[in-house]
Design brief:
Shape: globular
CATH superfamily: endopeptidase domain like (from Nostoc punctiforme)
CATH architecture: Alpha-Beta Complex
CATH class: Alpha Beta
Oligomer: single chain
Order of helices and strands: EEHEEHHEHEEHEEHEH
């Protein structure tokens, strides 16, 4: 459902309101503390984002977008390709390939548009946005669409709201900003979206399994 709101004398279409399931999804995503875990430049536990001690001098070549998304999916009772089924190296590229080829067998479904992606997230579905690097020796990127009421104009201009790990970890940003290290991917509509329904019981499990607020990454 698309709603309209009155803004400065103009009617502006917005994505559907955030449902209770959407609110719970947002709470689970926020509870993972991606701003302090799955940080670039460190070796991390893919499930928790906790650093494993090893740091790298070239931080941008050791990012964890795919690990974070896989960890969030697992926490919500959804399977997405993850280590050790695939190496953490170039995992985002492999995840998009897997979603396109095998995702339907695991109840993942392609999403037709950015607006629909935002709407499904607002309804409480797990929605991922992916970019496969055309150079298969270089990393792609993957993020999660987070519930957010955005106008059609905002979605068209900047994409759905997302949460991500990467060269910079964002609790909340736009798809355009999150995928800026892949020039042309957003502007040329090369991002692919996939959704998966979440059972109500999994929301509670996801919140229970969340990293405690006092968890801190190693500086």
């Amino acid at each position: 459902m698309i709603l309209t709101t009155w803004m400065g004398g103009l009617w502006s279409a917005t994505a559907a309101e955030i449902t209770p399931s959407g609110q719970r999804l947002g709470e689970v995503l926020d509870s993972m503390h991606v701003d302090r875990l799955w940080l670039a430049g460190r070796s991390v536990d893919w499930r928790t984002g906790e650093p494993k001690g090893k740091a790298y001098t070239n931080a941008t070549s050791h990012t964890h977008c795919s690990a974070f998304v896989a960890a969030a999916a697992e926490r919500l009772g959804v399977y997405l390709l993850h280590p050790p089924e695939h190496s953490s190296v170039l995992l985002a590229n492999a995840q998009q390939e897997w979603l396109r080829a095998e995702g339907a067998n695991h109840d993942w479904h392609p999403v037709a548009s950015p607006s629909q992606a935002q709407q499904l997230a607002n309804e409480g579905q797990l929605v991922v946005v992916t970019c496969k690097n055309p150079n298969e020796s270089l990393p792609g990127h993957i993020a999660i669409v987070r519930p957010s009421v955005r106008s059609e104009a905002e979605i068209l201009a900047e994409g759905p709201e997302i949460i991500q790990a990467g060269a910079h970890n964002y609790v909340s940003t736009t798809s355009k900003q999150g995928f800026k290290h892949h020039p042309g991917a957003f502007e040329n509509n090369q991002l692919l979206y996939f959704s998966h329904a979440i059972s109500p019981a999994k929301f509670a499990q996801g919140q229970t399994a969340a990293t405690p607020p006092e968890a801190k990454s190693v500086p």
